[in-house]
Amino acid sequence: MANLFNFTDENNLNPSVEPGVEPSELSKFSPGLLTFAAVVTGFIMVIGLFGNLLTVVALLKCPKVRNVAAAFIISLCIADFLFCAMVLPFAISGFWTRTWSHGGALCQLVPFLRYGNVGVSLLSIALITLNRYIMIAHHSWYGRVYRKHIIALMIVFSWLFSYGMQLPTLIGVWGKFDYDPELGTCSILPDANGRSSKTALFVIAFIVPAMLIFICYARIFWVVHSSEQRMREHQRSQHTSPGTLNNSTDKRSTVKDNRETKARRNEWRITKMVLAIFLSFLVCYLPITIAKVADSHVHYPVFHIAGYLLLYASACVNPIIYVIMNAQYRAAYAAALCCPLARLSGLTSGAYPSSPACQPVRKTERTSALASYVRP
User: Fold this and answer.
1) What Å distances lie between residue 83 and 16, 48, 74, 119, 120, CA to CA?
2) Where do the domains of the chain lie?
3) What is the DSSP letter of 191?
């Protein structure tokens, strides 16, 4: 571990690299390309800090979007905000200087935070997906599973597990966090016994949650498709049975159908939004994850840099998805931006009457949303 603090040789382009070790592949890129990467990363950092903070404020402020899924989305936003605040500045420095110049302690802490936030993000997405699955496929369990203390335990578990499984690497007994002379940044390297946790982390923190999300969505699509078929058959049976309902009953049935259809569509929009978040996560994280495992000796450095830029972009893409895919989130953002700063101290209180997304949710609306997926 002592070599972590050996960053003082001014004659070496990469001060942490021991004599006889080749300069990092990062140093072989043109200054213009690395400057471009630093600028793009800085832009991502600013957008991510603002977007994730705004999302947290909007979800806390507006009761209509403050549901169970929002609790996990807030956890996801906090992880992305910390990633932007505590990891990306060092990434910008690395692209700008082509080496690591922040000392050995931070060389261990920064990758620990980076991998930890990746784990929290994916587990948060998995928990949101599981929430959607239980809401749609097993709504009778919903009230028993999603109580306040259980939701809190789920969120705490996602953070403790994501960081806890890295503790052996942090203390150097299963790989180690150290300067990677081939890439010119700090990452997971083999320990003194030649062991590394990269592959295991890839399986535990990426493959397993991704498979859980895939299975949940496959089941969600099947249940929704079956429900739509039953709905159409039910409507056809009503239309082909004249004289069984009077006009007033027929009108009440039509109003109820319209209300439940609207609630069902809203829940389905949220489900599709979570799917888009997961797909964006795959697009952003899979390249660098594959590069770390399949090209551990950095034979293709361009692939690594492109992967890092995609990884950094994941920290700011989720608020963009919320804005594009959900009208209630757009209204919540508008309410959060328009409210006076003096009101921000009471974010959990009432919201502006002019913002539909910030109106309290009536109990009948919540019941209708749950029941819409289990109609005969």
Assistant:
1) 24, 9, 14, 12, 11
2) 2-237+248-371
3) -
Task: Catalogue the E-assigned strands of 196-276.
Answer: none
The amino acid occupying position 247 is N
Q: How far is CA 127 from CA 69, 268, 328, in A?
A: 8, 17, 21
The Cβ-side half-sphere exposure at 140, using a 13 Å CA radius, reads: 2
Exposure string over 335-348, b if 16+ CB within 10 A, otherwise e: bbeebeeeeeeebe
pLDDT (tens, 9 = 90+) of the chain, 376 residues, equals 333 333 333 333 344 444 334 455 566 567 777 888 899 999 999 999 999 999 999 998 888 788 888 999 999 999 999 999 999 999 999 888 877 888 889 999 999 998 898 889 889 988 988 998 898 888 888 888 999 999 999 999 999 999 999 999 999 888 999 988 776 778 888 888 888 888 888 788 778 888 888 888 888 888 877 777 777 676 667 666 555 545 555 555 555 555 555 556 666 677 788 888 888 888 887 887 787 777 767 677 778 778 888 989 988 998 888 888 878 888 888 888 875 443 444 434 444 444 555 655 554 444 443 343 333 3
Between the CA of residue 98 and those of 72, 133, 189, 257, what are the distances in Å? 37, 45, 19, 62
- For 158, other C-beta atoms within 10 Å of its C-beta total 24
The angle subtended at Cα 59 by Cα 53 and Cα 63, nearest 5°, is 155
Residue 117 gets the label, from left (phi > 0), alpha (psi -120 to 50) or beta, of alpha
Residue 310 φ then ψ, to 5°: -65, -40
CB neighbourhood size of 60 (10 A): 19
d(Cα 351, Cα 57) in Å, to the nearest integer?
12
| CATH class of the domain at 2-237+248-371 | mainly alpha
DSSP string, 253-308: HHHHHHHHHHHHHHHHHHHHHHHHHHHHHHHHHHHHHHHHHHTTT-S-HHHHHHHH
Angle of helix 247-294 versus helix 208-239 axis, rounded to 10: 160
